[in-house]
Amino acid sequence: MANDWSPFLEDNPETFYNAVSPTGANNFTNYWKNKYSDVYGGYLGKLGQQAIGGQSPSLTFGDYLKDYPFLSEWLRMSPGNRGQMGVGTSRWMV
User: Fold this and answer.
1) Phi-psi region of 24 (alpha: psi -120 to 50; beta: other; left: phi over 0)
2) What pLDDT shows up at residue 1?
3) In whole angstroms, how large is the CA radius of gyration of the chain?
4) Quick check: is 72 in a domain?
5) Which of 29, 51, 64, 65 has CA 20 to 30 A from 44's CA?
6) What contacts 66, CB < 8 A, 6 or more positions away?
7) Please, what is the average pLDDT of the chain?
8) What pLDDT score does 36 carry?
9) Do the beta carbons of residue 56 and residue 64 sit within 8 Å?
10) Predicted pLDDT of residue 21
């Protein structure tokens, strides 16, 4: 059954993004809270690729988000970029 509110969400992409992006209070969710413009820019790029390829730009933001690799993109980053201390490192005060 289709969601009757899908048009609202597609017309308000930032609301859609905030509704489906990871939530909580940790480095992972804080990272994604600040990535809306990058994710939406990637979506617009996909629409442009469809148009350049001669296809109707029909990808919805919801479909783009459904397949967005939130976790795998996060895991490709180094622990330092994720705000995590390196495992097994020690600091000595001399």
Assistant:
1) left
2) 44
3) 18
4) no
5) 29
6) none
7) 87
8) 94
9) no
10) 85
